[in-house]
Amino acid sequence: MIIQFKTRLLVLATALSCAVAGVAAAADVKPRLIRFGYGLNEESVQGRAARFLAQELEKVSDGKLKMKTFGSANLGSDEQMQGALAGGAQEMMVGSTAPLAGMVKEFGVFDLPFLFNSEKEADAVLDGPLGQDLMKKLEAKGLVGLVYWENGFRNMTNSKRPITRAEDLQGIKLRVMQNQIALGVFNTLGANAVPMPFSELFTALETRTVDGQENPITTIQSSKFYEVQPFLTITRHVYTPWVVLASKKWWDTLSPDEQKLIRQAAAASRDFERKDSRADSTKAMTTLEQAGMKINTVTPEEVARMRQKVQPVVDKYTQELGPDLVKQLNDEIQKARN
Ligand code: TF8
């Protein structure tokens, strides 16, 4: 009697633990190797989140979906990787949305300056209807958008002088991302904007091919720009996201179960990355101060002047991107703000 009862309990317990062990065992999941490329180094926010994603994916798939991560643009610049994914030569990547605007112009909305006031507003728009609709547009170009990670609010560094007014940018050769709006914005502010892949940036700064660049604090720290850029100016002029992408050619060969596990791991990586990025930003600022960077913050009055200066660029691209889309964007920001 007792033995029978124990056996039944055991059977029940085994059944339960199988269910908990995850869908992977029962589901249609084959052993696969996924190459995941990114542009920053392994010590960056991007590097940590890539490792998290790889671990998470192994966990949820019971070790079947293995991800190999390649940092420091070892698989190519953001633009090159986008092409490799579209062609089916690489499975996954994370990169900025800015160079994606060359494929799906609507991604340019995130390059419009001085839009978001806080990370919370950015999260709401990216995870809301607008951000999700934009990702769907990628499919026609051979890409599948999974989640947005935080790159963050961008600030300027340079080797010439502190930027206290737009006029201080006169004559500064400033590297920008490969994106029309970024180019327009910085030329209008008075700089000589030079589009260039991130992978070439450190050397360009070191050899003074360019005088400055703009990126979030976390990147200025992890990429060690403080070694070659004495001046940091806090402008928070634009919030740019990163997007985790898959090759559609490859994605379509996966089973629905495999796709579900990848989406699940990607969602977990988004939550991890955003938290990590926000914590790291504060720490990175201290590191930059200790490294001896001369740091200034532009006044709210000067931000208002800069905003006014670039308004023609915003107007021009509002027409090009679609006034309805830009209105939807502003409406979603307002909603998040209230
Ligand atoms: C840039 C971006 C970079 C990313 C990264 C290389 O300045 O801010 O963070 O695109 O993937 O190019």
From TrEMBL:
GO BP field: transmembrane transport
Keyword Signal: yes
Residues annotated as signal peptide: 1-26
Keyword ATP-binding: no
CDD domains: PBP2_TRAP_YiaO_like
Single GO molecular function: carbohydrate binding
Coiled coil ranges: none
GO CC terms, sorted: outer membrane-bounded periplasmic space
Keywords: Signal
Name of this chain's protein: 2,3-diketo-L-gulonate-binding periplasmic protein YiaO
Organism: Achromobacter kerstersii
